[in-house]
């Protein structure tokens, strides 16, 4: 009989896995037949062979997307019609909830309870939200003299290349697909080679929902092969990229070397979590920090991995945080109670362990965690780790670790806190914890980040923009602002006699 801990393993054994691309509404192998083996980070089990897309596959997908855009089979439909079809797509995602959640967990190691309660519903809500918005967004008429009429309209841009990472594979794809498809574009999605399975399944569900063939294509493969071919393609009008700052730089270069396609980068972060001594509920701040930091194994672009605490409460706060961390002990991602799953692969494990070693050798104090865990499984697990007595020069406080590791730096004054928080090449998110109204507003204004949280960290909704200042990127995903990325603004002058 199934127990809660075996039920998902049994379902996993019976799951249909298909790593082929989806081009023009059809499942297809790579043109040259090449594949790569996908293993699960949970226990290194073999999952399936995945199509290794290269330039020829990308070209086939882009030309299918271009044909679909040019004959207006999608862009030409009334917004209300696109709305209905996209709502059906969102419903199909929800109906396939357990299958998609299981694929996501097997592919990249996050706990099944969160794939079910966060990733699948958030992806569906994103698609549904843009569907619902698209027949409610009006264009403009400029205040011109009587002799003319000037219409300011938004038109779909054409073919969008979406290149996404492995940490929230479905949600990151949905943040591109929602606004791009609702606005009438065609899309070629290149998922990460570390998490390709849900993307391919989403494209099948889209076709079942009635999105015409060619409008939404998926080419799995490696970044330097399929990703580069997509970003260089002359028939791609814009790239919606989410990933590392290192690769984001390349996206700008690819655009410069090809057709100056628009590039919207959503990149890395090293978000500051600033706690002042006047904030009364330190246990709450510590609980929130641990929850946000260790969610998704710390593999979140907005993880609050730079903790700045006023010196007078630093010891107390750090002890509270260190007591929270062990509640996120790594466990079997397919067990429904597990809070912290596996890191995505061995490379990521080595990177995270390397940062832990550098924290120790640079003189930070490891209060809890710091070790690899569950090695007997063959998977890639790291204990939630808290460093104290860190300094702003250390690698663990400057570089994005992308694992369950956070570090506390003490500060004396408000001005020093602001300077330290802003002393980063990143600017994705930040938070300020203070019970003084003036201070909270003052510091929130001074922080150079795309999102600033006050006395909380975990609020998030499709209704608000998400993106960064500085080297955290330029575009904004989510909210109506995301339509700006996937539409061209046209002015039409009409003479009035
Ligand atoms: P990555 O940059 O290594 O890869 C991202 C995508 O780019 C993958 O699909 C990959 O195959 C592709 N790619 C890699 N090299 C390429 C190349 N030379 N040409 C074209 N494509 C290439 O990032 P990752 O390790 O998958 O993801 C982690 C990063 O993503 C972190 O830095 C994280 O902060 C960032 N991220 C940012 C946000 C955000 O909204 N700002 C959200 C999630 C993740």
Structure characterization notes:
The protein is of the alpha/beta class. The protein folds into two domains: 4-267 and 473-490, Aldehyde Dehydrogenase, Chain A, domain 1 (3-Layer(aba) Sandwich), CATH 3.40.605; 272-454, Aldehyde Dehydrogenase, Chain A, domain 2. 40% of the residues lie in helices and 20% in strands. The chain contains 16 helices and 23 strands. The protein has helices spanning 4-13, 55-70, 79-95, 97-108, 112-134, 169-182, 197-209, 223-232, 245-257, 282-294, 311-324, 346-361, 395-398, 414-422, 437-446, 483-486; strands spanning 21-23, 26-28, 35-39, 46-51, 140-141, 148-156, 159-163, 186-190, 216-218, 238-242, 262-266, 272-275, 306-310, 365-368, 372-373, 381-382, 385-388, 405-411, 426-427, 429-433, 451-454, 469-470, 487-495. The protein has a seven-stranded mixed beta sheet with strand order 14-17-18-13-12-20-21, with helices on both faces. The chain has a five-stranded parallel beta sheet with strand order 9-8-7-10-11, sandwiched between helices. Helix 7 (197-209) links the parallel strand 8 and strand 9 (216-218). It is globular. The N and C termini lie far apart (82 Å). The mean pLDDT is 98. Bound molecules: nicotinamide-adenine-dinucleotide (NAD). Residues 163-167, 172, 190, 192-193, 222-224, 227-228, 231, 242-244, 247, 250, 266-269, 301, 400, 402, 428, 466, 468, 472-473 line the site of nicotinamide-adenine-dinucleotide (NAD). Nicotinamide-adenine-dinucleotide binds next to helix 8 and helix 9. Keywords: Oxidoreductase. InterPro entries: Ald_DH/histidinol_DH, Ald_DH_C, Ald_DH_CS_CYS, Ald_DH_N, Aldehyde_DH_dom. Residues 33-491 form the Aldehyde dehydrogenase domain. Pfam families: Aldedh (PF00171). GO terms for molecular function: aldehyde dehydrogenase [NAD(P)+] activity.
